[in-house]
Write a structure and sequence with these properties.
Blueprint (H helix, E strand, L loop, with lengths): L4 E10 L2 E11 L4 E6 L5 H8 L7 E6 L2 E4 L5 H13 E4 L11 H11 L5 H14 L15 H14 L4 E5 L7 H16 L3 E5 L3 H7 L2 E6 L2 E6 L1 H6 L4 H11 L4
Parallel strand pairs: 3-8, 3-9, 6-7, 7-8
Antiparallel strand pairs: 1-2, 1-4, 4-5, 9-10
Helix pairs in contact: 3-4, 3-5, 4-5, 5-6
């Protein structure tokens, strides 16, 4: 099967700091890949390089046939970055909803302004995706009337309404109160079951065990393990992975 995401020899520097070190990775269509690791291991930077929120220092990123070389400049490069962003939906730690817009207007802003979608069609698509995440009943509310979990579900609907080929989740539950985490994870499980290709940076090991097809472990800017959840959690090969799992099992993450 042809990968829908292909990353080759990716490097990222912040000044002299080498944050990502020669990372290569393939993701198949419909695959769910969870990325775990300690803070500062490069997980979020990897995700942000895939849609060029961070410009890679070197390497090649390809998403659904759009191939972009890191470190390039010029009009053609900017167009390719635009094209790759249309292929990827991103959900952040913070919800980044526009406070002056209703829930539905937040969800359809991207398709209308970025893709030039007809507003009537965008509203139909937006309402469908709000229904997918269980938030259609709040379509006319404003963000300040929503809980954190509801805001994040709206953010997921907003990303889905752009009709991406790949969804990127950057620790989507880390800003939520513990009692709200489950509702967001349940929505993510549903999106995965519907066949969306997903890369998920998460500290939620239970979610990784249950939903992921593969789990990547990152440390010091490198992928140190890339295995099925069953194999990884049963017999981690690297002591840094064992330390992560032990911390999870003791209730520390």
């Amino acid at each position: 099967m042809v990968p829908i995401v292909n990353i080759s020899n990716l490097d990222k520097y912040f000044g002299r700091l080498h944050v990502l070190k020669n990372i290569s990775l393939d993701v198949a269509p419909r695959e769910v890949v969870c990325i775990i690791g300690r803070s500062g291991s490069g997980k979020s930077t990897l995700l942000r390089c895939i849609n060029f929120l961070e410009e890679p220092s070197a390497g090649v990123i390809e998403v659904d046939g759009v191939k972009v070389e890191g470190g390039e400049k010029g009009r053609e490069h900017r167009q390719l970055v635009h094209d790759i962003r249309l292929k990827t939906g991103m959900v952040f730690q913070e919800f980044n909803l526009f406070p002056h817009m209703s829930v539905l207007d937040n969800v359809i802003e991207g398709p209308v302004t970025v893709k030039g979608m007809d507003r009537t069609k965008a509203r139909e698509l937006g309402e469908m995706n709000l229904d997918r995440v269980g938030m259609l009943f709040k379509k006319d509310e404003y963000p300040n009337r929503l809980s954190g979990g509801q805001k994040q579900r709206v953010a997921i609907a907003r990303a889905l309404t752009m009709e991406p080929r790949v969804m990127l989740f950057d620790e989507p539950t880390s800003a939520l109160d513990p009692e709200l985490i489950g509702e967001v994870l349940n929505v993510m499980k549903k999106v995965a079951q519907e066949g969306m290709t997903m890369l998920v940076v998460t500290h939620e090991m239970g979610f990784a065990r249950e939903v992921a097809d593969r789990v990547l472990v990152m440390a010091d800017g490198e992928i140190i393990e890339d295995r099925t959840p069953t194999d990884l959690f049963a017999s981690p090969k690297d002591p840094r992975t064992q330390a992560l799992i032990d911390r999870y099992r003791s209730g520390g993450g």
